[in-house]
Amino acid sequence: MLNIRPVRRDDLPAIKGFTDREIGANYYSTAELELMFERSRLGDTRCTLILEDESGEIRGIRITYPPGQWEHGKGEGLKPELWPFDLKSTAYFQSLFIAGDLRGQGWGGRMSAAAIRLLREAGVKGIVCHSWKESPNNSSTRYLQKLGFQMIAEHKEYWRNVNYQCTRCGNPPCRCTAQEMYLILHPWRLRRPRSEGPA
Per CATH, the architecture of 3-184 is what? Predict the structure, then answer.
């Protein structure tokens, strides 16, 4: 049985081991994970969610930063001028990783849907993220599109300055492409001028 729950500080060492195995060594440092824990806070809630099995082993993580807790992603490339809402109203899906033996079973979508519900209930207006274009069968982008995310822009070699061993490229630098995507959480439309009544 698998359970989705908010991250706790005592999860951080296990998260480091999980991300080293599933993403590539040192994609997240211990210091970055400490910062992730602090930036995940929205009031009394932690927006980052983990997936754990019956033994308490971490099998997935959905890193989520609410508005006001982030300014940029892990790599280089962001186009807020193309968003319907500004940075102060927009949350960020930093990363989603699922254990290899659980991929393709819908857990990524469930974890993201749980984070979306949490942010929507808090009144957040939108979420931006960077999908991994070269993911197997473009699964990263396809699952986000199923959740309602729309493409904003592409950023070539987005992770080139992140010093880690990419599971696709091998040794750094990573040459993969990020696709910037946005999800509107609340209805948004241009306001029409009010009618002044009959002339």
Answer: 3-Layer(aba) Sandwich (3.40)
